[in-house]
Amino acid sequence: MNKLEIKKRIEKLRSEIEKYRYAYHVLDKSLISDAALDSLKNELEKLEREFPDLITSDSPTQRVGGAPLEKFEKVRHTAPMMSIFDAFSPLDMRDWEKRLKKIMPGQKFDYYAELKMDGLAVALIYEKGGFVLGATRGDGEIGEDVTQNLKTIEAIPLVLRRPEKQELKNIGLSEEAIKKLYQAINNGRLEARGEAIISTKVFAELNKLYKKQGRAELANPRNAAAGSIRQLDSKLTAERRLDCHIYSLATDLGLKYHEQEHELAKLLGFKVLKQNKYCKNLEEAIKFHNYWENHRDKVPFECDGAVIVVNNLNLWPKLGIVGKGPRYMMAYKFAAEQATTVVEDVVWQVGRTGVLTPTAHLKPVKVYGVTVSRATLHNLDEIRRLSLKIGDTVIIERAGDVIPKVVKVLPNLRVGSEKEIKVPKQCPMCSGGVEKVASEVAFRCINKKCYAVNLRNLTHWASRNAMDVEGLGPKIIEQLYKEGLVKDISDFFKLTAGDLKPLERFAEKSAENLVAAIAARKEVDLARFIYSLGIRHVGEESALALAKHFGSLEKIKNAGQDEINSIYDFGEVMAKSAYEWFHDKHNLDLLARLEAAGVKIKSLKLSSKNTKLAGKIFVLTGSLEKLTRDQAKAKIRELGGDISSSVSTNTDYVVAGAEPGSKLEKAQKLGVKVIDEGEFMKLIS
C-alpha cells in the first residue's frame, strides 16, 4: 500500500473501532469478539508505529499516554460543579417540593430520577467534536486536568458521534436546538459532566489479582476510582478499567428537559445509566428511590441513593441556587449502612483547649466498603445515653464519608465481663489533673503545659484562618516540638535554617522557605493575632469584635471584665475567658516574648471610606444566592458594620435569605427591620 492507501486504512480502522466501542459501551451490544477487536487495534497500532506522522490525538491507540506527568495542572470550570443537598426520608422530599411550590406557586413539577453513582465527578470538554480536556470537580470552581487518564476510559468517546437529524427529532429537539448542537460539534465547544467509577465486578477482579501478586488491595470502589483518576502515570489508570456515565450537558443547547440531556448524551456516544427514569410526580420519584434501595444488589456499581431532578430546564433559573447547591435537584440518600462489632476499648484524646474526648476502639469491621476500627463518642453524656460499656456489642453506622458512630448498644449480648467507662482522673498525655468544666458536659486537663494542649495550640496558631504560615503543618510542628525547638508560639520566630536542615523532611531550600514564611508573619492584624492565640470561647467573630472595640492590644490587656462584657454579642463566659487570658502571667510573658521576637501587631483602624455601616448590627438568616454567608459577613465588616448570631432590640437589620429560620420570627416580634437579599445588596453596594 502507498501512503495515501495506508492513511485511508488507518481512518477506516479508527472508524470501525469507534463503532464497536459505541455499540458495546453505549448500546450494550457486542458486535464483535474481544479477540477480533484486539486484532483490529493491533493492526492500527502497527500502522501508526510505522507512520507516526499519521497519529492523531483522537486515535484509539492514544488512550494511554507515554511518560508519566510530573503534576496535574489546575483548571477553572466554565460553570461551577455544584454540590447537591441531601434528603433522608419521604418527609424530607415532600418538604423540598413544598419549598419549590412556595417559590413558584401553582407550578406543577415533574422529575427525572437518576441513580446516584459513588465515584468521582468529572467534566469533559470537546472542541470541534474532539476530546480536548478532562477535569476533576475539585472544589467546584477549580479542578485538576486529568485528560490523559480519562482518555483511558473506553466509555468516554475521543470524538463525538454526530447524530442524524431524525434521531434528534425523535428525542424532541427543536430545529433551533439541532442547529446549536451541530454548531457545537462542528466548530464550537461542548461540555459533558458525569461520574468516573469502578464497577463492583472489576473491583473484585482487581483485588483478586492484586492479592495474588502480593500488592496492596483497593479499599473500596469509590476511593479506587478517585485514586485511579489521580495517578500521574496513565498506564496505572488504564489498568483499573474504569467506567464513566454522563448525567448532564453543561453547554446550553436549547434543550427543554433534563431527560433530553441523557438521551442526547447517548446519541453523542456517551454512556448513560439505563436505570434512570422519568417520573410524572414526586411520589413516582420516591417509589424509584425505594425500589433501588431494595435492589442495590442488582446495580453493577456502588450506589448510595437517587438524585431527583426537576425535569423542566426552564424552571432551573427561576428556582435558583442556595449556597453551593441548586434548589432544583435533591440527593435522596439510601439508608446508611450499618454493622455490628465489639467495643474493645475507649481512649480519651486531648484537644487544643484541653478538653478530653472519648473515642471507641472497635474490633475491625467493614462498613460501606471501608474497614472501621474507631468511632466517635463525643462526650460522657453520649456514653451514658447509650449505656455503653467496654466489651459491648454495638451497632455502628457510616454514611458515605461521615465519621463512623455508635448508634446502639445490644445489651442482651453482654456476658458479664463488660467494664464501666470512666473519665480518667489524670490527663492521658501529661498525667496532669482533670476537672469537669462548670455548666458543661466537658472534662479538661488543667495542666497549662500539657503536651497535647500545647501541640494543638501551636497547630492552631499556624492554621489558615489564624496566622496562615505556609509549609508549617501539623507533622512539621510535632517534629519541632519533639526536638525541643519550639515550646510556645514565640519560639517559631527564633528558628533558623540551621536549626531545621538536620531534621528529617528538610533540605536547605525547604528550611530557608519555612523560616521566611514565619518571618513574613511578624506583622499581623490585631483580629487575626487574637484569634491565633487560641483563647477559649473566642472565635474569629469574637476576636474581630475585641479588635474593633479596643483597637490595640494594650487596651485589651488593660480592660476590665465588665468592659469586655459590654461588647455587643459578648456573654459573661466569653468575657471571663478573654479577661482571664490577658491577665494570666504566663500569657503576658508569652506576649512579651513575641514582642521581643519582633512581632508587630497592627491596630485596627477603619478608613473613612469604609464606615458606611459603622455602628450597625446585622443578623443573617436563611440562604443568600448572590453571596456566600462568609462573603456577606466580610462585606459588612469591610464597611464598618458588626455581625451578631442572635436577634435582640440592639439589632439594626436582619437579612432574610431563602428559607429563613426562627431569627426572622424573633425579629418580627421585636420590630427589628428585616431586609431581603436585594435590599441588602443595595445597602452594601
Please describe the structure with a list of short key phrases separated by commas or semicolons:
Helix Hairpins; 5-stranded mixed beta sheet; 5-stranded antiparallel beta sheet; OB fold (Dihydrolipoamide Acetyltransferase, E2P); D-amino Acid Aminotransferase, Chain A, domain 1; 685 residues; 26 strands
Structure commentary:
The chain has six domains: 3-62, Helix hairpin bin (Helix Hairpins, Orthogonal Bundle), CATH 1.10.287; 86-333, D-amino Acid Aminotransferase, Chain A, domain 1, CATH 3.30.470; 336-447, Nucleic acid-binding proteins (OB fold (Dihydrolipoamide Acetyltransferase, E2P)); 451-521, DNA polymerase, domain 1 (Orthogonal Bundle); 525-602, DNA polymerase, domain 1 (Orthogonal Bundle), CATH 1.10.150.20; 608-684, Rossmann fold (3-Layer(aba) Sandwich), CATH 3.40.50.10190. It is built from 26 helices and 26 strands. The radius of gyration is 30 Å and the shape is globular. It starts with a helix and ends with a helix. The protein is α+β, with helices and mostly antiparallel strands.
Number of domains: 6
Residues in helices, as a percent range? 25-40%
Quote the CATH topology of the largest domain.
D-amino Acid Aminotransferase, Chain A, domain 1
CATH superfamily of the largest domain: DNA ligase/mRNA capping enzyme
Task: Tell me the distance between the termini.
Answer: 71 Å
Strand order of the largest sheet: 2-13-10-3-9
CATH C-level name of the largest domain: Alpha Beta
Q: Largest sheet, if any?
A: 5 strands, mixed
Helix-and-strand structural type: alpha+beta
Report the portion of residues in β strands. Answer: 15-25%
Arithmetic mean pLDDT: 86
- What value does the Rg take, in angstroms? 30 Å
Give me the number of helical elements.
26
Shape: globular
> Judging by the overall fold, what is the CATH architecture of the largest domain?
2-Layer Sandwich
Low-confidence stretches: none
| Count of distinct strands | 26
